[in-house]
């Protein structure tokens, strides 16, 4: 394992301003030009220069009336595609085919080094607190403890799952429990129970007890590749999706390590590639009921969504978001926004709005263009010092890693329920469609 220091600013300024908030619909917003020079006053400590090169700035974008975005930085990786991104409160991490994990410090986003594990491509990553989990080409997981020290990242490998030593101490009959036999495609972490979940193309999901460095449960989750996995941190439910076209919900047996299947969600036969969860906590000061939405992106370009019943654990299909021309590869949610990356090289931003009586409507508010290959991975977070601003990182199979700054404005109160960007229509729940039909409003269909 090698750790290298590389000081490279992702951007030199984040002071771009939008002069008018009430923009006319479909207005092109051209931000101030931003340059990304390598600062000579902060030389790299790496013996070999990092193979990152700056890409040309993207063209101006057309935005929704209450949404402005532009690309802050674009970095090109000539020796491999960007396969995974992880974001913590302090850092951004990007994994590539070369096995390097690049890192940047938040919020200034300066390069603070990279980690080289020499274990093949970094196909999936997940960050939690000061821990970063990375999956490598040898079908194993590395756990890193990361922190800032003396203007550089200090990364310490805590453990490897499974360890090489376990090859010698476990019996042959037990190796099926301990080891994945194909690529580990996804990761999720249960903060309360300190359980790490790994999903693999060998169709299995494994649960690892971090404190004991061992696999405590392994089960065949799907008939095809397991493509994504996520955890509801409130109740511990495990969600998985697969190329077999299904989404499954699992629960851990109380007091045990085993998991049981509680529900199968399947709306179409197309492979499901990505999952995202959007939920709110109950507030006694609010009359609104808590919501819980599950989103799944599939190879047919659709994003299906399910809403959880407030009185049970059942998820009901609410509709689908249509707009991508090719498969959806990644999803991420931030509050009432859903971001989707696709094989069509675009990132779409969707907004979910409540229209009364616990009815919700979705609409596409922007299409972010800039990549020249499929968008493989996404990560997003709100900026702590700027209300309404959001930082989005995207990795693509065009060998580039891009950072976007999104500025959101509170929509004006108007008679219309929602405004549509371009020719895209809102995606509505079936109950709302029927309601509008009965009222004779032909605008929604």
TrEMBL record:
Keywords: Repeat, WD repeat. Residues 36-57 are annotated as: Disordered. It comes from the Eukaryota. Residues 37-55 have a biased composition (Low complexity). It holds the Pfam family WD40. WD repeats lie at residues 177-218, 219-250, 321-350. Signal peptide: none annotated. InterPro entries: JINGUBANG-like, WD40/YVTN_repeat-like_dom_sf, WD40_PAC1, WD40_repeat_dom_sf, WD40_rpt. This is Uncharacterized protein. It comes from Cucumis melo (Muskmelon). The lineage of its organism: Eukaryota, Viridiplantae, Streptophyta, Embryophyta, Tracheophyta. The gene is 103489957.
């Amino acid at each position: 394992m090698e750790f290298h220091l590389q000081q490279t600013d992702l951007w030199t300024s984040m002071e771009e301003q939008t002069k008018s908030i009430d923009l006319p619909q479909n207005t092109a917003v051209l931000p101030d030009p931003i340059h990304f020079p390598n600062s000579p006053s902060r030389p790299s400590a790496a013996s070999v220069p990092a193979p990152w090169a700056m890409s040309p700035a993207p063209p101006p974008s057309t935005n929704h009336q209450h949404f402005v975005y532009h690309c802050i930085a674009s970095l090109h990786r000539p020796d491999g595609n960007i396969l995974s991104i992880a974001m913590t409160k302090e850092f951004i991490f990007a994994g590539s085919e070369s096995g390097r994990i690049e890192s940047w410090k938040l919020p200034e986003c300066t390069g603070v080094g990279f980690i080289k594990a020499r274990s093949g491509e970094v196909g999936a990553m997940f960050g939690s607190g000061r821990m970063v989990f990375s999956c490598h080409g040898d079908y194993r997981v590395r756990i890193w403890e990361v922190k800032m020290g003396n203007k550089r990242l200090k990364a310490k490998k805590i453990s490897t799952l499974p360890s090489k030593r376990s090859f010698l101490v476990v019996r042959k009959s037990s190796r099926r429990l301990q080891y994945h036999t194909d690529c580990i495609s996804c990761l999720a972490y249960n903060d309360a129970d300190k359980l790490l979940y790994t999903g693999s193309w060998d169709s299995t999901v494994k649960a690892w007890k971090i404190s004991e460095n061992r696999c405590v449960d392994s089960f065949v989750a799907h008939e095809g590749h397991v493509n994504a996995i996520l955890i509801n941190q409130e109740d511990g439910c495990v969600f998985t999706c697969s190329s077999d076209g299904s989404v499954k919900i699992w629960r851990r047996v109380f007091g045990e390590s085993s998991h049981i299947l509680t529900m199968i969600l399947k709306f179409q036969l197309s492979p499901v590639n990505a999952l995202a969860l959007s939920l709110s906590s109950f507030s006694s000061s609010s009359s609104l009921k808590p919501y819980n939405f599950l989103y799944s992106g599939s190879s047919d370009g659709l994003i299906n969504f399910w809403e959880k019943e407030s009185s049970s654990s059942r998820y009901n299909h609410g509709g689908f978001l249509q707009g991508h021309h090719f498969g959806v590869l990644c999803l991420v949610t931030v509050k009432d926004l859903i971001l989707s990356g696709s094989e069509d090289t675009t990132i779409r931003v969707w907004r979910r709005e409540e229209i009364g009586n616990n009815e919700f409507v979705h609409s596409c508010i922007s299409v972010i263009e800039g990549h020249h290959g499929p968008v493989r991975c996404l990560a997003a977070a709100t900026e702590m010092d700027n209300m309404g601003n959001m930082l989005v990182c995207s990795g693509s199979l065009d060998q580039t890693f891009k950072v976007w700054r999104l500025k959101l404005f509170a929509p004006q109160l108007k008679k219309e329920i929602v405004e549509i960007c371009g020719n895209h229509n809102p995606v509505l729940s079936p109950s709302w469609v029927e309601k509008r039909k009965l009222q004779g409003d032909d605008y929604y269909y």
